[in-house]
From TrEMBL:
Keyword 4Fe-4S among UniProt keywords: no
Subcellular location: Cytoplasm
Species this protein is from: Paenibacillus mellifer
Gene3D superfamilies: 3.30.230.10, GHMP kinase, C-terminal domain
GO cellular component entries: cytosol
Domain GHMP kinase N-terminal: 99-181
The protein, known as: Galactokinase
Ranges for domain GHMP kinase C-terminal: 286-367
Annotated residues for binding of ATP: 69, 124-130
Family: Belongs to the GHMP kinase family. GalK subfamily.
Amino acid sequence: MKKNEMEQLFISKFGGSSESLHVFNAPGRVNLIGEHIDYNGGYVFPAALEFGTTLAIRKRADGKVSFASSNLPYTAELKLEELGTSKTGEWIDYPIGTYVELKKLGISLTSGYDLLFHGEIPNGSGLSSSASIEVVTAFAFLSMEGKETNKVEIARLSQRAENQYVGVNSGIMDQFAVANGAQDHAILLMCDTLEYKLVPFRTGAYKLVISNTKKRRGLVDSKYNERRSECDEALAILQKREPSLEFLAHLKPEQLEQWQGDFSNEVLLKRAKHVVEENARVLKSVDALSANDLKTFGELMNASHDSLRDLYEVSCLELDVMVEEARKIDGTLGARMTGAGFGGCTVSLVHEDSVERFVAEVGQAYKERTGLDGEFYVCGVGDGVHEMKGEK
Ligand code: ADP
Ligand code: MG
């Protein structure tokens, strides 16, 4: 939402004028390639989206903090000292949990505030509206209190808010991408060390099309744990040959080929192959994008999906159908599932002239083959969290 529209929305809710009103924005995110690699010591490669969560915020004199969202009806007005004393189970747990983490770092609010959120990210679709609302809150509170806004620290404390206060166990990628993303760039991130590099990703005439399968993700937790322990087993086999190997993703594809005879269990070998080759694909993607070679990047996206389907076995009919149909459209450079799998979204790189056809034809074929109404979000790569200043 534009800054002046957000100001109008805020004023119609809380009254007063736009003087001393500040507007902040944090994007959603999508992982472009590098799936099921983070817990194996490899790279993820997310990008911030052009749409996200906007927050309009203004100090108030009576020491109360008021929360409202244009997306959800629940509102609350709490005294400063009440913040974080009891979980509500409502959406305000996300911004309040973020404040609880700021307080642990010794940063308290010195006045009351009115906050109005407006989210453009569909909730619960895997595009990380939760990280977006956490990160925009942390950035806004720090800015309003005149404190330093270190985006890596903001990502870390937002992740803690989600893990500890909200109680959802998630890795650091989402908050990191939402905080540190940059327009026309993807983020090469090592989740363990938080070492990262911004890689040019000029999509030009191409758009990211995110296709939501709308399939409920029932299996994801149990299969996730199963894959993690399979990777541990594969690592143990390889460590007999490579004693200094700490993580599966640190192995090169040619090393795995050399030791593949050690695997009596075909399934473990398939899992290891996915991890080692997917990590190599991330690094190849960095080279391709640095050379502005979107075609090669699209091929790597395709290979990633096929590996997740055949070797890692975390896809499902709905994701496969969405990807198959996407690849039939002229102008699609690549398509793959994104996220943990068993449902959720796919991401495709599609020429802007083909986007309309893509949405119509993929949507129709998907419905015919699965009975489900998919949903499509078209966007470019946006900026990480920031204050909307000159923007209208
Ligand atoms: P995802 O992060 O994939 O979108 P989650 O279930 O992790 O899904 O987070 C969604 C939740 O985050 C919502 O149900 C709501 O509680 C909160 N949330 C996100 N954006 C907003 C918003 N703009 N206004 C209010 N609550 C929001
Ligand atoms: Mg989330």
